[in-house]
Structure formats: C-alpha cells, structure tokens
C-alpha cells in the first residue's frame, strides 16, 4: 500500500542519510520504523494483561465453560 506522509525537511534529510548509511531505501526505513512502533505498542498491551487471572479463585477454562453455558441457555 502506498502512503503519503509529510515530514519536516530536517527529518527527511536525516532519514535519507541514515537510510543511505544502512544501505536501505527510504521506504524500507519507514516500514521498519512503523513495524517497531506497532511492536512496542502491542508488547506493552500484552505485558499489562499477563497474569490477569492470577488473583481469581476460578480456573480460566471453568470460567469459559460457565460463560458458554450461559450463552447456550439464551
């Protein structure tokens, strides 16, 4: 997918210099930056959810079965 973005001239120049130094295209540098941005935000979300059932007295699978039974009764 092609996307048009507006960057300040100084950022574009720095991006071009770094891309050239790494031997990659400007587009590849932007793709990598977007991938890192998305990865860092997904990871934070996963970290927040890890251990969410830790303090519950009910097993997660038992809970799932109970909720599904409620759906089936409707």
UniProtKB/TrEMBL annotation:
It comes from the Bacteria. InterPro entries: Arc_rbn_hlx_hlx, CopG. Pfam families: RHH_1. Residues 2-39 form the Ribbon-helix-helix protein CopG domain. One of its GO terms (biological process) is regulation of DNA-templated transcription. Gene3D superfamilies: Met repressor-like. This is Ribbon-helix-helix protein, CopG family. It comes from Wenzhouxiangella limi.
């Amino acid at each position: 997918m092609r996307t048009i973005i507006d960057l300040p001239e100084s950022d574009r120049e720095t991006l071009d210099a770094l891309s050239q130094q790494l031997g990659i295209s400007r587009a590849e540098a932007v793709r990598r930056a977007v991938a890192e941005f998305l990865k860092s935000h997904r990871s934070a979300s996963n970290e927040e959810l890890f251990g969410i059932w830790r303090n519950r007295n009910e097993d997660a699978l038992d809970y799932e079965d109970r909720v599904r039974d409620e759906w089936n009764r409707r």
